[in-house]
## 1
Amino acid sequence: MMALDSTPAIQYMVWPDDLHGHRFTVSLIIHHPNPQGQVVHMPAWIPGSYLIRDFSKHIESITAFTLPKNQAEAKKKIALERLDNDRWRIPKGTGACEIVTTIYAFDQSVRTAYLDQERGFFNPTSLCLAVEGQAHLPCSLAIAPPHAQTNKHWQVQTTLRQVKTDASSFGFYMAKDYADLIDHPVALGQFETIEWQSFGTPHRMVIQGLTSEQSQLLDKKKLADDLQRICDATIRLFEPRKPKAPFKQYLFIVNAALDGYGGLEHCDSTALLCKRDQLPYGDHSTQRPKKSYEEFLGLCSHEYFHAWLVKRIQAKAFQPYRLNERNHTRLLWLFEGFTSYYDDLQLVRSACITMERYLELVGSNWNGVLRNPGRTKQSVADSSFDAWTKYYQMDENTPNAVVSYYAKGSLIALGLDLQIRQFSNDQQSLDDVMRFLWKEHGKTGTGINQYALDLAINSTIGIGFNKIWQRFKRDYIDGTQDLPLQIWLPQIANVEVPQKQANFTEAIKLALGMRYTDSSGWIKVTHVLDGGLAQIAGLAPNDLISSINLQRITNTRMDQVLGSLVNSKKITFHFFRQDKEHQASTALKLDYPAQYELKQSKK
């Protein structure tokens, strides 16, 4: 326990007040409000998730009071002026004051806040109002225990700097400023804890949401061993000579749930959501599929890599973050795409997956990109810029209009790595570029603009590579061409890339260009891809298909019915749209995007 610092001008207290109603009570004390009228606001989005989320919509009540100068004085209510959905103003001439908010928290994602009888979680962006004009000042955060704490045995898990806390870590924390505060998620409750050291830096993973049986069976040793290898490999990537992490500690906060998957990066921690059966358990009779665990390790690898690329090697457009408006950059293909490339690469480098499995993952991602017509219409640079309105607000037409800067960005990193290796006779790689970015931008905090990668590549690979790089950037980053990995991989990486030979059922599914779900026994169309048989015939999203070629169609009968069309010349759909029955037909032609397999060469 450390001595409490001098009283900061900005003080927050978060109290898990109503576990059954899922409400936090939050107090904000401002000791020196702007005498011309202090404005406070709730962020509209959280860094790392590029969508305006309007966190203020979860505020149920907000009240301001004067701060008594002594115990004899009573609090007096202050009238708050509502400026817009996110901003409030305290009247002119107000002295030290307190703003108390009640905030509903029942979002299980890693982006916001959650509270019930079992656990609590919050990002300060969802609970803590920013004090305009004073966001640069140090601030404290007091985390109070819930009622009936003796029955809960709850603890606090966060990497915020502890100042004065109890044995369960409830108490006072300090942040350098508001930006530092919101970069530290907080988890409350009971945890399974895994700890290890990576090159002398303490790391730990805390897990919530397991059943009592799963807690007993959790294979902590396997988790610790695998995570240590992944973290070691990433630290070595950026600091190969003297491996050292850029943080004093690192925390993985894991919510294990029935369903869900995702993560959000922070400076020295990450919040993760996974399925319970993705974790490793000692009882092999109930062991989850191995691929499911590998997927979880990939998520850990991805968010950990972001501690370097995004949190420290950062877009200039994010310096500083402007949390009340969209912050546009054309570089998310670099930040998310390159991270998506390295997350799986680090798994194979750390021996957590085999090379065969790695090639399977690369092939799956590549084929997924090739199946979406949007890749021919939108560049990854444009996709990055439009993330706020397109990628993060997907609809039924998204596959036809949008390319994923994650998925294609990963292929761009792979393709660039291959081109660098070919040019340098395998003496250099994308790793060298990443180390340059780390040295020049990550360590210095200098933000990356659109020309920074040009300089990094020319400085590390040499000016002779510039012509190759400029053509590469024109075609695959600013343009919409497909990367010719089927040519590059055999030439450079000694990987065989045969085209997949689909059987008739697989081929007709690809040719249909239709995605669907089961809806009470009906086939409900969710997406219709440009140029596919479904679109040519006239199907549309939300149609309910009753039969194909006069055969009743259900989710379980789909393969059987499609397979029976092997000698058919046309395909006929009976379907309902807005409860009106329709019939549509088209010639049965098996035209579909090429799909590939990746195999280690036997040469």
## 2
Amino acid sequence: MPMAAQSEQRWILFALGVIALYVSPLFILGENAHIRVHDNLDSNIAWYKVLAESGQITGPLDANIPQIANGQLSRNALGSELTGIVWLHALFPTMTAYALSQTIIRVVAFLGMYLLLKTHFLPERRWMAVRIGVALAFALTLFWPSGMLSTLGMPLALWAFLNIRKGERSWKNVAVLTLLPFYSSFVLGFFFFLSAMGALWLLDVLRGKGWNIRFFLSIAYMTLLYLLVEYRLVYSFLWEDEPTSRDEYFHARLTFWHCVRLTWKNFLLGHHHVMTEHTLFILPAWFIALFLIFANQRWKEERVFLFLFGLNFALSAWYAFWFYKGWLPLTERFHFLDTFNFARFHFLRPLIIYVQFALALKIIWQSSEKGKTWAKRLLAAQIILVFLLNEELVFRYEPTVKQFYAEKQFQEIKQYIGLPVSEYRVVSIGLHPAIAQYNGFYTLDTYNNFYPLSYKYEFRQIIERELAKSKTIRTYFDEWGGRCYVFTAELGKRYMFTKHAKQRLKNLQLNTEQLKNMGGRYIFSAVPIDNAAENGLALERVFTSDESAWTIYLYKVQ
């Protein structure tokens, strides 16, 4: 084996070692690890556990999940049993499943970006450091965990598609297109990616490059596979006619200038679901490269970089202007424009940003000896940045997994109530209902964006007087409603009051008769309710625990 190839293999192994070090806190600390709460601990992780314990992982299309939303949450709202992450959480304890998932995703992200750069963008031997370094940085980004490979699997998919587009016949390409749908989401990433591949195929046709049937069939094959994997979602979308909470999602409300500001914010800072961490070092690299291109009149040679730069900005503008109120006439006429989030085309940006970064480093590197030095510095700085933006460090001030779910504390509550959990319903105030769900309680409240609209109206009666006091929570609930929570005007859109919080509810106004009619018997409140008696509530007991982030005030509906 040539020395250069051996050297590259050693650096690849070193990069994989860095990834292992990056995920090691999850394996070492387990439940004492700090991980993301938003759209993670407060939802998906609890859903996987509830689904695993419901006996409905492979349930029929018309099955419901008894434990959530008074049994009105459809089984189809919790993902397909053909998705790998569901089985990880069914077969392993929560943090083991989470750690394994993080490892799988980051290794695949690294290998995908490395192969894409080596095969199609930076094949020359001298760019070894750039392609390995950029692939490592990409694999360490602070992405949305439950997205699986929905964004971080795109480089590997693009590698396979570009191989097929060039006429390569290999089982590896087919294997990639076959396996990715089982560990990613169609609506959270690959719908938009495959749309882009379809646009690329059509552009080739229009440019006279032929019909390239194999490329077209590969796109169709992966699309069909996604539809089969996510058959529950397809069924719900096409054949269920009962209105859902998605039917009252109104996104088009921003002014033109607000959208302009949001465009620049997204372009410069990114989005929390697809955190690229590109602002400090990647962005300057782009602009240095852009200056060098125009200074040296190399726009023809670097047209790929310029195209990606323009596409990158266009996707930020698309994301921002999807929320422009000028869409209203169209959304009123074509309802699917409200129920499906087309803004997510910006989920293509992580792929584009890091390929663009690699090309920028190449441009800077080859400009001069000083440029080579600066390219290395920018690459090293980006790797160090994303490595330090580890969940354990970023979320160190949030509760640990153990503190968040507080299993020992909620077991005490369960024992104190002394009834089978299926015989009563609970709601939470000041903390996420996912915590009660994770601990086996049957809840009226939920965080899910796909439940019956009739249930939303039914639940709204419990909090209607609180919603009337605050336009903020009223708009949040009525025009989205994904968080079907017991909102209060005094607490607003906050739902994580730890045991160190000083807040109290002084003027709570709930419709406890409606709560009772729906089966609600207990309230888990993270803050004391001063006027509990006025609401027909009686404080049963206060539960505290050194292992918990919460003080739970247990109120019983009289």
## 3
Amino acid sequence: MFGLLKIRIVILAAVFVGLVPFVASEIMRTRADMAQRLEDINKSMLTSLARSQRGFIEARLEVERLSETIALSDTLRTVSPEHCNESLAHVLHIQEKVERITLLTANGVGYCSTDPKAIGLYFGDRDYFTAALSSDKVVWSDFILSRVTGRRVLQSAMAIRTGGRVDFVLTIALDSAYLRQASLDQFSLPLTYGMLLDADGNVLDGGAMPGVTDHLSRETTKRMAALGTGLVLPGTYGAGDEVFGVATLPGTSNRIGFGVSTEEVRSVATHEMVERLALVGLVALGLVAVVLGLLEWLVLRGLRQVVHVAERVAAGDWTSRITQKPLLPDLALVGRSVNMMLDSLEASVNTDALTGLANRRALDRFLLASLNRLKRHGVGFTVVMIDIDAFKPFNDHYGHGTGDDVLQMVGAAIQRFARRTDEIAARYGGEEFTLILAETDPEKLALHLEALRQAVEAIAIPHLHSPHAVCTVSVGYAAAEPDDSPLTAISRADGCLYLAKNKGRNRVEGVPRDEQDFELFSSFMTQVA
């Protein structure tokens, strides 16, 4: 009896000693899991900030296009203030991003407006008004206090001229409430703070979200202003347990900043660790032998599935995932972690890191699938090649950092022209981009791609070495044919791009019908072949 007791005591002691490494590994695993979750928060913050910046750029571009459209109306120069108010009110009704449209006299006095309170007010001392008088483009202010409403607005201005004389200055204020809500909608995480900052770190608008009572540290806002774009990590610069993301709004000195609490992440990770340790401890005390045998079987089965998935991934099958749901939460966590890692790797190998578009690998796969669909079912498509004009001189003059910014902005513009599920926008390499479009009608394609070319030109990125003074793109397109290989389909569109470059760049060209153009096109295709 005493011997059996000693055996039991030895077994129990061995179990408890064996639990020591497990406890240590659980602590290390929890720390790693917590770090990974915090890293996921950081990545999510950066992604959401980038989306907010892109949305801000798109809103500004939309206002600039609206300004140019209104400025083309000759009736503005002769219409009465009452009719002018009605015309502007009609335009405002269909523009959800716009808060107010006002027409100022050349002296800076409100002539007509969608807000009657702006009529007769003096705006001639505003910097944006002065800048508009000396420019033929749309100019922008930083976020400023509106003299009409007292709220923060982002103001645009464009001079309307007859010959060299300024008739009016058209001003359009972006709706700050719309911009704020559009930015908040980009975040999938619960926010603790959302604010607009100036270059000195002063909070212009916003602050703590509803239900948050903690005071925002001045040290944190100053760091966010100095950082410009990036993250303030928990425990640094007065951030407490929050991670703060900040991004500079393009074309202004203002920043947008958001905060997310990490307290729940730490609490959940710690709670999961305690639960796992408690479960293993109770099982070890109650059913040592049975549980150890069952655990061995469960672990081996889980590991076999992990090995199987690893072999499939090594063979090139990135779609393989761990599908069995183990009974043990530890192995379930491992399965989820492996699946998350594979999801992240699959996304990274198919996405261009700089522009966020599909990369060359994803393009090749998509193009091959489209050609197979064309051969089997007759579903046609068009290959489009796009090249940023004179990009090397731009990089040499402005620097590669600015060149990367241009690639991102042009990529964002191109992405808007491939909306369907059977279409793709990709970065082909360097300053070249590719579109696979479902449309095959030449006339519709020409209009669609001309709109793309104009959209890039409308961004108005200064380019001293371009005859157009701004960054532009050349576009070539060609419909795929059933006997095409991926290289042939790309080469035909590339030949049209070559033709667009030879005809002066900043233009759209399809497969030529003109004899002289056809000779250039054929010469290019012969060289490629």
## 4
Amino acid sequence: MRDTEVVKLGGRSFDILLALADRPGEVVTQKELIAKVWPDVFVENVSLRVHVAALRKALDCDGTRCLATVPGRGYCLVAPIVRETIEELPESVPAIEPAYPLPPPLARMVGRDEDVRAICEELLARRFVTVVGAGGVGKTTTVLSAAHELLDEFLGAVCLVELSPVNSPQFLASAITSAFRLPVRAQDPIPELATHLRGKRVLLVLDSCEHLIAEAARVAERLFREASDLYILATSREALRVEGEHIYPLPPLISPPEDEKLTAAEALAYPAVQLFVNRIVSAGFSKGLVDEDARIVSGMCRQLGGIALAIELAAGRVAAYGIRDTASLLNGQFALLWPGRRTAPPRQQTLNATLDWSYDLLSDDERRVFRQLSVFTGGFTLDAACGVVTGDGPGSLEFHRIVASLVAKSLASADPGASKRYRLLDMTRTYAGSKLQQAGESLDLCRRHATYYRDLLAQAARENQDPRALAAEIENIRAALSWSFKPSGDSELGVQLAALSATTWLGLGLLTECHDWMRTAYQLLDDTPAPLPQHLGICMALASTLLFTASDIGEFKPVWNKAFGLAVSLGDVESQMSCHLALWALQIRVPHYADCLAVAEDCLRTAERADNSGAIGQAEWMLGQSNLHLGRPEEAMSHYQRFITVDTEASRLAMMKQTGYDRRSDALGNLSFLWWLTGSPEQALRIGSEAVSVARSLEFPLPIAVAGMWNGLTHYFIESDIDKIEADMVDLVEHARTHGIVQFQGFGLSILGLCQARRGQLDEARRLVEEGLRLQDASHIRVFHPAIRSELAEAAANLGRLEVAESILQQNDRDDVNDPEHWWTPEILRVKSVVAEATGRMDDGVDLCRRAAALARRRGALSFELRAATTLGRMSAPHPHEALELLDSVYGRFAEGFHTPDLLKAKRLIDELKMSGDRPGLQYST
């Protein structure tokens, strides 16, 4: 709270505040905060500083009034802290004793307080409530707690009847009558029981009605009608479906969503994790939950579907196996046999017993459908289930009735949203799968399942659907591929599935998995009679993913040759263009800029022969980027402008489906940098913002990373606010890490390192930059190496670390063997001049700086020319007249951006030179 206003904080900032508030007035070290908030993350101090800055901004404080920085140590919360304690409760009146035997409530019920309250309110308003839910979800625990809550309301007249021991419908009425301590003197004791209850305000709790459902419904309805003061609270795995009944569906405990960055504090906000941790601590696992295990425990809770019994049974294994080994054991049938509390009813001693209880109550047709639904992973539609399980069309009313019955019996669940999907909980599916194996139905069913999803993918391709349209089916597609490529599967079907699913994997940004499936299929192509277009699709997808995922880029060329040969033989111009694109992307990443220009030019010729506007647009985009990296900004901008004019939305989206890459947001990012380079910083910022906006609107992970990268590079040279640059790069690093796009994680770390260098922290800067360049190298991206190294070398020289500066520049020289003159050459020459001057080689420094300025002018790189002129002006202090003339002429060609760091520095130097007098100076040659 800030005064009376709630302050909204991100999860990281909140964790930092929590850690500081726990030790008010004390210095909490950076190391302690990082261990708490970012376990096992490389970004360390930079990320911490960024989130502390965001925290200060959110709290609207300047750091002296609430949050102080202690240089070299950490942070201290200096704001006044008010701790409130709960007032002592008045002495409670003696509790009302139950009139009938009532088991005590569970000592540690977790996550059900709101359900208990709602059930009590519903019961008092409606008189008859049935709590419905899956086996083990916690119906008995919740209802027993509600019964105790209602003791005062009913003056102790609460009678619970446990029906699970009653094994025959004919004994049910007698069991209820006996629970009220009445003699059973007739074949039908209900009339006498109703007479006894009439006029008495009593709560009858009927627990576990499902195995006697018809008789339980009949008896409950009669009692409800004949005893108007009787309240009935029942539990069942399906509704009784009688007059007067109101259903309260008891949902599973809520689990955290999938999140790689989840902390223990965040996970413990969810009831499923609270229950798990409560039980592992009770079982003797004293470690509790730590950040590095938070994601694993959350995943276990999701896998167990939030079912309380399953969570308790899994938690009971942790003391023996540990958290990680327990998680790995969850996938097997062994977990179904884990024992629970000895005092629990037999049906709840193990998950297997709980599910046996439900399975034995099904009809033969329901059992068959239930076990065959285990072939689906991640849910299913009714059409899919009907097609796979029965082979019938979507109109099978009997099948629909059976699935509805399984949902009613809490063995399957229905998505409450508009997607109309159904699913079995993971442990239920494991149980059903074991029944499927026992029935000998698995092989044929898996084949029908794989065939169905092959046909579904083929239909999506014919209808040109968005590749993300089948995102909900990705687990079923994965399972179908996995079965197909097994020795007992069908490799031909697997190759077809791989070819048809490629765009889905790419569209969802699952590049590594796409690579793995395509590689498996590629190795089978020569022995598989699949159509050539499918061969081509697999080769294309494999070639694309190799650029992002392969450790050995040597695999690329054979795959590319095969793909291009297939595209030519099929006369497929679009695929030929995609092959050109893949080869071009390889050349530009390595980098071989002259070669990539040649590929782009060949691509343009192919597109023009085909008279295809979209293909021409793609080629112009490729030419724009090729010329940018060759240091030809004017040509690059010209090609980009033509790209914007001729490109088509259909072609752009087709490329995005094939590769997951968006050329429009990439082009805007490149243009942003080009506008800065050619002297329009404000236009650069506008275009950069547009690039980010376009990328985010697509919701594809790769375009967001690409736009963030170019925007980050441009902002680094234009922005003076280092905090803002760092915040943007932390976002990029975390986005890239989440989606496994390593090269963008590396780029973000590199810029964060350069920001550290600006702060004078050279050792930390080198560590971040080296890690960033290593990650980019691992993805075969060396495009930004010269820029990053040059900036770091200049920072080292300015800090007097000349050996470091020279070492960094030598690395650049080794990398520039392939393209000795490229987009960053003027800056490399300028930085070499700075190092030469600093080491006492003034003449060399001046000569290098002149060359840098002259090269930048020839290219039209006005911002590089300004940086060179500024450096030359500083070197030429003994000759201010010529230096002033040079710098003033460059500065005068700018029409905007006068508030940016480079222009401010140049203006200050111009003013200094004007004050230093008129002396003979250097000659500047173009």
